[in-house]
Design goal:
globular, binds magnesium ion, 149 residues, five-stranded parallel sheet, 5 strands, single chain, Rossmann fold, alpha/beta
Length: 149
């Protein structure tokens, strides 16, 4: 499956809503962002199960910076869709959803936004919504994936 992850509130904290992986002072200096504890473990596990992992965010971050941040933590991902591309594509297709993963060939999207959860029902795409404060988020993603598959 092609699985996309949201960034803010899902893999990268907005404030201090979840624990994060260790980051060196140099990394911090270089602008490497914090990442959710267990993100690497989960993504690598999914990749071992032959899933392709991508990033789908409505932020305007620089794609290279996103890739460098993830690589710092040992995470390699496929495609990155940021808001610039998202807005363009959804506009062309006349989709009024804030995110619509199928248009980028993402089979399943993982996000913290309840709004995205509502959209997934309205526009009929597969999504798993994880609360930012959920400490068992890895297990919950895996369990919810079993129900989807
Ligand atoms: Mg989010």
């Amino acid at each position: 499956m092609n699985i996309s992850f949201d960034l803010d509130g899902t893999l990268i904290p907005k404030e201090e809503e979840f624990e994060t992986e260790k980051r060196s002072r140099i990394a911090k200096f270089l602008g490497i962002e914090k990442i959710r504890k267990g993100a690497r473990e989960l993504i690598i596990d999914l990749q071992k199960h032959n899933h392709n992992i991508h990033i789908y965010t409505t932020s305007f971050r620089n794609k290279i910076k996103i890739r460098i941040t993830l690589q710092y933590y040992g995470i390699r991902i496929g495609r990155i869709i940021t808001q610039t591309e998202n807005q363009k594509k959804l506009k062309i297709q006349c989709i009024s959803s804030s995110k619509y993963p199928p248009v980028f060939n993402f089979d399943l999207h993982i996000d913290d936004s309840k709004g995205v959860g509502i959209e997934s029902e309205r526009y009929n795409f597969k999504a798993i919504i994880i609360d930012p404060t959920d400490e068992n988020w890895i297990e919950n993603v895996k369990n919810k994936m079993k129900n989807i598959a």
